[in-house]
Amino acid sequence: MRYAVLSDIHGNLEALTAVMDALSRQRIDQYLCLGDVVGYGADPAACLARLHSCDAVMVGGNHDLACTGKLDLGWFNDAAKTALTWTRDQLSFTELDALRRLPLTTVVGPFTLVHATLPHPERFEYLVDVAQAVDVFTTCRTPMCLAGHTHIPCFLEYDCAQRRIVRHLAAAQELTDVSFTDTPQTRRYLFNPGSVGQPRDGDPRASVGLIDSEAQRVSVHRVPYDVATAQRKIQRAGLPGFLADRLAAGR
Q: In the list 26, 61, 129, 157, which could disulfide-bond 36, CB 3.0-4.6 Å?
């Protein structure tokens, strides 16, 4: 099976369209989305529709839940609050209900999907240290956990016997072709594909992950998109200018 792994689209239709167009030139058997389809960007409904059109399996992110009232807006900074309030007003009852129904975690074949950290997915914690990663590995019951939220791609390998992380890949050149083995008794993996709609690793191009379960390979691909149009839409919507500016910086 070949899987496309998308995360943190954040209402950026230009980025999502470019990614989907690039993926259409490959064989993709299943689309997986790790949450935060909405928030920040100016096309929440169109992004949600695009994912539904390809039958993507989805979990809920903190922005998805917040615009449905399942997560308090006090959790967010002022720019995010403004965008979430605006996003909520753009979505129909049916669209909001679809977001409300998203699970926090789900399992697809050898993968456990979650937006943030697995032990407490409802807390939406950022995975920033080794202890958190080890907690994910010891909680996960499938060979690989797929997580987003940080907007920064990475791949970690955990040795179950030694109970330690033995591989941590984060540099772009390291993530172009990564091997793994389907042996959850001895090895487990965590893969973050980065962000489609708002990368924060200094590269403004959309980021998407590919997994070939037969070849046992993982890769991160960067896709250029029309940043200027996405910025203009944010500005025309009256959303905070910072949300438009950061797209060009990839921060």
A: 61
